[in-house]
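User: Hi! I have a protein structure encoded as tokens and I'd like to know what sequence might fold into it. I'm fairly new to this, so please keep things simple.
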């Protein structure tokens, strides 16, 4: 009998539901919230209210696209955390209610684990190239910057992580600093394609081991732009493409420097990236080039699986379910999770 898993993702501002059958994706529906652009960042209260409006139609659409009825579901996987507590509460509560109504188990998933396993999402008619265990994953998003050793679908070790800000936050805040808009990552990526990445230099941190820091480079850009604008009020507009290209290159240099060290220290040759920042075109190009130079096998998730989506929650939940794990109805969402 096939295992059919419904995945629910509601950790931030995207409401998503997906259905997988024996690890193969049947549907993946995402409802994005545009209202946050007006505020330059996600407003938690608005996000949770939008999830309340979106969760029922999104789940209904995911089931319909998959050609699956609620009664055919084997289990429901949902994001417990980390994320915005109000947003997580909507998804968690819905999963509990639906699981109770259908008398099927629910399975909690760490949102970050979903990103780590995005390369294992199988799709009908598409060949899947999966990394071998163990592999390293550079997990980069708006809230996290980590290098993780993945020993199997359920066992992970964090080798290095940011000690302050995440790289995605650096993209967003510096885009806002230059008046370019939100979300900053895609905007900077687009403008950088037209710029000279060697035009400007920014201070890079010197952090021991495999940990990251991105607070200093934000300050470096802030002071540089402040001084230049004082001399020429139109400096940003005249140089925004070069600024974006140079800043983006500096961030990617920081990320790749530690990843290269981690690969050398562990001897692991299968390298993945995951998380929202893994959609960055320059990062994707650089990691492939580094792989060619260093004999890595590099694995890049499809762009649709880089941002928050329920397909990754469903595949992670599938592995947990196959391992015999089930989550009690008493479980509560958490904004932070200390481990995987």
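Assistant: Happy to help. Inverse folding works backwards from shape to sequence: for each of the 340 positions I chose a residue that suits the local structure. Here it is:
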């Amino acid at each position: 009998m096939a295992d059919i898993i419904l995945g629910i993702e509601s950790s931030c501002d995207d409401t998503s539901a997906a259905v997988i059958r024996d690890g193969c994706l049947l549907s993946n529906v995402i409802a994005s919230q545009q209202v946050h652009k007006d505020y330059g960042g996600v407003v938690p209260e608005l996000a949770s209210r939008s999830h309340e409006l979106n969760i029922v139609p999104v789940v209904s659409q995911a089931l319909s696209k998959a050609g699956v009825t609620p009664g055919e579901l084997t289990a429901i996987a949902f994001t417990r955390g980390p994320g915005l507590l109000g947003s997580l509460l909507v998804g968690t509560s819905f999963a509990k209610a639906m699981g109770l109504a259908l008398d099927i188990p629910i399975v909690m998933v760490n949102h970050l684990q979903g990103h780590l396993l995005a390369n294992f999402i199988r799709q009908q008619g598409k060949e899947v190239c999966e990394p071998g265990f163990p592999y390293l994953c550079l997990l980069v998003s708006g809230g996290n910057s980590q290098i993780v050793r993945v020993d199997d679908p359920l066992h992970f070790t964090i080798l290095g992580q940011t000690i302050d800000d995440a790289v995605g936050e650096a993209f967003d805040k510096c885009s806002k600093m230059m008046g370019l808009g939100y979300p900053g990552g895609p905007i900077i990526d687009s403008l950088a394609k037209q710029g000279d990445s060697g035009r400007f230099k920014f201070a890079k941190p010197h952090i021991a081991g495999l940990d990251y820091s991105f607070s200093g480079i934000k300050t470096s850009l802030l002071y540089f732009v402040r001084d230049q604008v004082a001399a020429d009020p139109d400096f940003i507009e005249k140089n925004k493409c070069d600024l974006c290209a140079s800043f983006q290159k500096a961030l990617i240099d920081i990320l790749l420097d530690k990843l290269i060290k981690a690969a050398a220290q562990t001897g692991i040759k299968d390298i993945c990236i995951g998380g929202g920042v893994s959609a960055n075109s320059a990062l994707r190009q650089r990691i492939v080039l580094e792989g060619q130079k260093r004999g890595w096998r590099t694995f890049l998730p499809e762009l649709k699986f880089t941002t928050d989506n329920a397909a990754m929650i469903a595949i992670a939940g599938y592995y947990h379910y196959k391992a015999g794990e089930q989550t009690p109805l008493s479980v509560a969402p958490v904004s932070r999770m200390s481990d995987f």
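A useful reference point when you look it over: The chain has two domains: 4-127+305-322, 135-301. Feel free to ask if any position seems puzzling.
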